[in-house]
Design goal:
Length: about 100
């Protein structure tokens, strides 16, 4: 399996927890193995626990330079103000944006 690393986040002390459903773009689904996706999700969850909230945008880079974005939709403090279906995050390639 390829080696992935999480790049430094742009904003510290944020309130995004990536707790909702995870959506993958078609490109991510087609190009990444399930093991790669699971590694990214596991790292993301551990980072959230460690920091007690993170920036809405997290960037992962594979050893060959391929980048994947994880974008959360709703801050934890806003969860009760939105329908449950709004609580999701997406894994996508920058070109999918």
């Amino acid at each position: 399996m390829a080696t992935w690393k999480r790049l430094p986040q742009e904003q510290e002390n944020q309130d995004y927890w990536f707790t909702g459903s995870c959506f993958l773009t078609r490109n991510v689904f087609d190009k990444l193995s399930s093991e790669e996706v699971q590694w990214i999700l596991s790292d993301l969850r551990e980072f959230v626990k460690e920091k007690q909230g993170i920036d809405y945008l997290q960037v992962y880079e594979r050893d060959d330079g391929l980048r994947v974005w994880a974008i959360d939709q709703i801050r934890k403090i806003e969860l009760n103000d939105h329908p449950v279906e709004h609580n999701h995050f997406t894994l996508l390639f920058p070109e999918d944006y």
